[in-house]
Amino acid sequence: MGSTEGLGSSMMQFGVTKPISMAGPMSADFQRTKELEKSSRLCQPDMATPPPMGPPGNPMFEGGPPPPQPPGTDMTGICFRDQLWLNTYPLDRNLVFDYFAMSPFYDWTCNNEQLRVRSVHPLDISNLTKMTGIEYILSEVLEPHLFVIRKQKRDSPEKVTPMLAYYILDGSIYQAPQLCNVFAARIGRTLHHIQKAFTIAASKLEKIGYGKQRFSCELFYL
Residue 106: is its pLDDT beyond 90? Predict the structure, then answer.
């Protein structure tokens, strides 16, 4: 049988292959270990004591999810539809706002959400007129196919400023484009057609001019 020294040298080893020191731990090493264990126990939190809670009403301190961000002003490129909800509940003027609140177009900081928390119908105009801020109202209804919801800012019971409009067409929710965007799109489309018409006219004029020049050259040689 070979010696253990020869066997160890033939085997592949990783890490430190030789001890740093052949001497055992000293009394200072044991003392240092005790100090580290003591400091680690002091740094660990007491699991029996719950962590301090912040002020009520803040979901970040209460352990709940953070509130969703307000929707953007231009979300005309997306639509929302929940077929499971549509198969379960009727889409009418009483439940349409609950369906709209599931979409990414809904602003959770609106006054309608405060009414929902108080178990009041979110479209109750008698309560909305007593509040100020962002609100949604149902402006046009053609049950069960078309619902138009307007987002506006209320400054007083009589003064409101329209902001955006959304429409629910056969269960699909869209953001209506703003008037300036509609004008810009129409003007851009008109300019495109005018430019195309001028291009076609110029090409035809070039063909007519080329034909007259060729005809005059043939007469000259005759």
Answer: yes
CA distance 118 to 109: 14
pLDDT tens for 39-83 read: 555 544 444 444 444 444 444 444 555 556 677 778 888 999 999
Take residue 207 and report the two structure tokens written for it.
């063909």
Domain-embedded: residue 55: no
Taking residue 136's Cβ as centre, other Cβ atoms within 10 Å add up to: 25
Containing structural domain, residue 101: 83-176
Tokens 């929902």 sit at which residue?
116
Judged on CB neighbours under 10 Å (0-12, 13-18, 19+), 87 is exposed
Per-residue pLDDT band for 167 (boundaries 50, 70, 90) equals very high
The answer to whether position 34 is within a domain reads: no
> How many domains are there within the chain?
2
CATH code for the domain of 169? 3.10.450.580
